Every structure is written in C-alpha cells, then in structure tokens.
Amino acid sequence: MKRMHKAALILMLILVPAMLFAQAKPIVLRLAETHPKGYPTELGDEEFARLVKERSGGRIVIEVYPGSQLGEEKAVIEQVQFGAIDLTRVSISPLASFVPKLNAFQMPYLYRDSDHMWKVLKGDIGKELLASLEPFGFIGLGWFDGGARSFYNSKKPVRTPADLKGLKIRVQESELMMGLVRAFGAVPTPMPYGEVYSGLQTGVIDGAENNPPSYFSASHYEVAKYYTLDEHTMVPEIIIGSKISLGRLSKADQDLIKQAAFDAIDYQRAQWAAYVKLSMDKVIAAGCTIIPVPDKTEWIKTVQPMYKTQSKEIQDLIARIQAVK
Ligand code: BDP
C-alpha cells in the first residue's frame, strides 16, 4: 500500500509539470505573405495576429512571414491545401485556379466603386463565399483591400485599349486574367510576382498590371514608366487557413481566428488608403508618366464578351453582386 502511494506520487510529480508545460506552450501558426514588411496587407496580417494573440490570452501565436519567404503565391496556396503552411494572405486571382467561382469577384469593371465591393465582401455574399472554401481544403477567414489594378509598361503611353495591342503583359497565374489581357489584344504572360521586376528590366515582358502600392513597392515603376489608370479590375485580397491544420483546433479557437481576421479588415483598409496615396506621390516624383482615364466607356466595352463566357454558377454570382445596392 505504502509503496503504491509512493509510486503514484512519483508519477504525479512527473505528469503534473509535464501537463502544465504542455498547456503553457502556445499553438504557433505560420502565415505566408508575398509583400514586404510594412506593406498594407502585411500590416493587416500583423493586426490579425495581434488580435488572435490578445483574444486567446497568448495561447495562439500567428507568425507572419513576409516577402515571399515561404514561396510565391501559387506554391503557397498548394502548401496551405496540404497543411504544410497554416495560413496565407493572397490575391483571389491565383486562388481562383483552385476555387473557380472566385472568378466572379474579379471580373473586369464589376464593382461600381470601392464601397460597392466592400458591401459585397462584408455582406452575405462575401461571408457565403468564405464559408464555401472548405471542400477545397481552405478555411476562408477574411478579406483585405487590394484597390484597383491598371496597366503599366516600358514602351509607350497607353491611352486607349488599342494601344495595348501586341504588348507582352505579365499576369498572375490566372486564366481569367489571361483572358482579360487577350481581350485587349495584348499577349498575356503568366509569371510569379517576384520575377516581374527582372522580366521588365530584361524585356522578357513589356508591361504588367497592378495597383499603385504594388507598382511602387516592388519598384516596377523604375523599369515601366508608363502607368495608365484604366482600373480594369478590383481584385480583393483574402486570408485563408488550411483546413488540415486549423481543423486540429477546437471549434471555439477556429471561431476566434475567423472573427479576428474579420475584425482586422478596417485597420487594413485604412493602411491601404494611406499607402495608395504615398505610392502615387512617389511614382509621380520619380518622373513616371501617369495617364488618367476619366472616360472608361471603351475599356468597359472591350471586356464585355468575357461576361458571356462564364459558367452558369459564376454568372449567377455576378448577377447577385451587381444587384447589391
Ligand atoms: C498584388 C497582390 C499580390 C499578388 C500580386 C501579383 O497583393 O497578392 O500576388 O499583386 O500581381 O496586388 O502577383
């Protein structure tokens, strides 16, 4: 009897500290981000991580890996699907190769303005879309602002869609974006973001398209001086988690993470607006030729056929997005 007690006591002395230690060890989740530290999406990631840490009392720690340290977007998305990377913030463009209905959200000239886009993303349609990513291996968490994308090139000022004819334009790894560039009579070249600068510099491509923050932050403006503000697409950014790795957490922790991502949106949007302004100021100061496009009628007309070739599922979603007032 006495010996039994002693054995139990020894066991407890070993187990209790081990259990306490296990409890004290935080759950660490890795988040992959293409952009460098300080870029508005990266700041949004940091805010998301801060909220998760605070609300979980330090039990859940999100480590942000900026600057494509964990790979370029397409490869990162694959790894999130396998559970090798826990979280990422990406553009919905490359994600649409995995989840085709996302294309509905990046159709050219779809949103009337940024307010319209945010009503869609934060409302029922946006929430429904986030929830529908699970069968593809992702948990949709929240949206970030990615502004409007426009063309830039190293050759000439592009003032009308016809001026784009024949130019080799880099696009994200996205069928829809390839179709868009073709609709303008240009030649689409899919390429990872990290290769665009040297592509422009060596002349492998003549141009690319992106929002002002990316045009500036990735220094593309140094090697492609003509920036045409045609604003052909507003492509939302998205935060997704791996169904495999987040699936190991309790339902309560998953909900906490979802809520934190959603609650980081407004902070990110404010950072975005400030950085758009800064980027435009910088590229103008650097001597870039900025070509405003106050009348977009011709641009809008050129891409209309793209709306007819979408699947029924996407066309239905587009109609619902357009109906949001
Ligand atoms: C930027 C997006 C980034 C994309 C990049 C691109 O924020 O996620 O990867 O465009 O064009 O605007 O690849």
Q: How would you describe this protein?
A:
With 325 residues, this protein is of the alpha/beta class. It has two domains: 26-145 and 235-276, Bacterial extracellular solute-binding protein, family 7 (D-Maltodextrin-Binding Protein, domain 2); 149-234 and 282-323, Bacterial extracellular solute-binding protein, family 7 (D-Maltodextrin-Binding Protein, domain 2), CATH 3.40.190.170. The protein is built from 16 helices and eleven strands. The strands form three sheets. Strands 2-1-3-10-4 form a five-stranded mixed sheet. A four-stranded mixed sheet has the order 8-5-9-11. Strands 6-7 form a two-stranded parallel ribbon. Strand 1, helix 2 and strand 2 form a beta-alpha-beta unit. Helix 2 (40-55) packs across helix 12 and helix 2 (40-55) packs antiparallel against helix 13. It is globular, with a radius of gyration of 23 Å. Beta-D-glucopyranuronic acid is lined by residues 34, 41, 73, 90-91, 146, 172, 193, 210-211, 214, 237. This is TRAP dicarboxylate transporter, DctP subunit. Residues 1-22 form the signal peptide. It comes from uncultured spirochete.
